[in-house]
Amino acid sequence: MKLKYLFVLLTILLVIGCTTKSPETEKKNQETPATEETPSTLEEPKMEAAVSSPTEQVILIKGPKAVEPSELTVSVGTLVTWKNVDYLDVDKGTGRAHTIAEWNDYFRSERLEPGDSFSFTFTEPGTYEYRSITAPGAKGTIIVE
Fold first, then answer.
1. 34-93 pLDDT, tens per residue?
2. What pTM was computed for the model?
3. At a CB cut-off of 8 Å and minimum separation 6, what does 142 contact?
């Protein structure tokens, strides 16, 4: 009889232990914002327009010889974001990767796959010429006043 009670008690403790959330899990669940589910199939990427504000500007990397805009004038403190929208095969969702770098290495991105972006805040006035390391024809100039 004692063995039966011991078995029931151990089973209950096991069930409680498996269903209780740890404080770390609870904290993580509270801090993680809800996100929409992503579709399981690749959708055709939408060509985006460069949406900018006075303190944030967007440059689209559109191909091996195209960034838009290719010349940009901004104020000191402006955040500039390069977004890779260079898709080779829209149906398959594949594209060309780019690495953006200023000629004197004032800034340099990691490898940007299609859909990835890189941001840099300009803190000093000057003229900054940049290009894609992987496709040197994709180049531009940023003038910081």
1. 434 334 334 444 445 555 556 899 999 998 888 999 999 999 999 999 999 988 666 666
2. 0.61
3. 71, 72, 73, 74, 80, 122, 127, 128, 130
DSSP for 50-65, written as a single string:
---BTTEEEEEEEETT
Instruction: Encode pLDDT of 110-137 as tens digits.
Output: 999 999 999 999 999 999 999 999 888 9
**Which positions ≥6 away from 112 have C-beta within 8 Å?**
61, 82, 84, 97, 98, 99, 100, 118
DSSP string, 33-53: PP-PPPPSSPPPPPPPP---B
* Backbone φ, ψ for residue 57 (5° rounding): -125, 150
CA–CA gap between residue 144 and residue 125 (Å, rounded) = 5
Q: For each of the domains in the chain, give its residue range(s) and CATH number, in order of start.
A: 56-144 (2.60.40.420)
Return the residue matching tokens 């838009």.
Answer: 68
CA 94 to chain centre: 17
- How far is CA 129 from its chain centroid? 23
Q: What single-letter amino acid sits at 52?
A: S
CA angle 108, 94, 59 (to 5 degrees): 40
